[in-house]
Write a structure and sequence with these properties.
12 strands, elongated, alpha/beta, D-Maltodextrin-Binding Protein, domain 2, Arc Repressor Mutant, subunit A
Length: 308
């Protein structure tokens, strides 16, 4: 059993940084200490808890079961202390803070990428970590694995708050060099293409494209199903393949993707921002949410201007 009277609570920050960075070198950089100092701290924690805590793998330092449990608890401790001593004012230009955004591939390129560009110079001391969303978003927020979630989920989980970020529509996409496909296609042309399909994130839901085609008594030729949208640009490049994607994907990769109007009436979707109630008044969390909402408004304004 760990003797709390002699335990060095500076090790808590080291534990959290190792869990976030999965690298002794990266953790040392963020902590502003040397790599040997982090290694020594890890050795002390291993001895204190009688557990390896982190295991070196090809993907970096992977936490053991005990290491993951301790890291979750350590984050709660650090958050409580930071909130206890934090001032009510927050100056992003001088603040040193680490914030974690939960987002899958679409949220990453549509919101997180613009966020990083926006705050790089205005908030140089703010570090943004991105983590994939799990089915249990409420649990991720509760355990403070993420500070906010960018998600299709619109209903607030327990002890959380949700607000709309932006709405999105679907379009077709082909390689920009594919001159055989115009700006819109007929239903026959659509069904005649070889399609790359992105699997629905929620496996309990059906694909809206295939549902709409089924109503019309038609089907598409799916030659490849992939787990995320990031693979689309490279797969379509130099090919005659076709894919149904969010409109923003074609704008983000406008140098290689050409948007195509669909011959189907597909419902769009709304991306939402969710955060835990404990962070409602936290200055740095308020600032993060304001940045994400501001970026969303700018993107929607830009899209509206393009459509005029």
């Amino acid at each position: 059993m760990v003797d709390l009277r002699s335990f060095d609570f500076n090790l808590v920050r080291v534990l959290v940084m190792l869990e976030e960075e999965r690298s002794v070198t990266s953790a040392a950089t963020r902590l502003g200490i040397t790599q040997p100092a982090v290694s020594a701290a890890l050795a002390r924690m291993r001895e204190a808890f009688d557990d390896p805590l982190f295991i070196r793998t090809q993907r970096g330092m992977t936490p053991s079961i005990r290491g993951a449990e301790l890291a979750r608890a350590a984050k709660l401790v650090l958050h409580d202390f930071e909130e206890l001593f934090a001032t009510k004012s927050f100056d992003p230009a001088t603040a040193e803070a680490s914030l974690t955004v939960g987002a899958n591939d679409y949220g990453q390129f549509s919101i997180v990428a613009p966020l990083l560009k926006t705050i790089r110079n205005s908030a140089p001391g703010i570090r943004i970590n991105v983590r994939p969303l799990e089915d249990d978003i409420c649990g991720q927020l509760e355990r403070q694995e993420i500070d906010v979630a960018i998600t299709l989920l619109s209903k607030s989980p327990q002890n959380a708050i949700a607000t709309r970020l932006f709405s999105e529509d679907f379009v077709g996409a082909v390689d920009k060099a594919n001159n055989s496909v115009g700006s819109r296609v007929s239903l026959d042309e659509f069904c005649g293409f070889e399609h790359v399909r992105v699997s629905v994130a929620n496996t309990r839901l059906t694909d809206p494209v295939d549902e709409e085609l089924k109503i019309k008594g038609r089907r598409r030729d799916i030659v490849l199903t992939i787990p995320n949208f990031f693979m689309i640009p490279s797969l379509l490049r130099g090919s005659d393949l076709f894919s149904v994607v969010p409109l923003r994907l074609t704008r983000y990769f406008d140098w290689t993707l050409k948007p195509v109007a669909l011959p189907l009436h597909l419902p769009g979707f709304t991306m939402n921002l969710i955060w835990h109630q404990r962070t409602v008044d936290s200055p740095r969390h308020v600032w993060l949410r304001e940045q994400l909402q501001s970026i969303s408004r700018s993107i929607e304004k830009g899209a509206a201007d393009k459509n005029r």
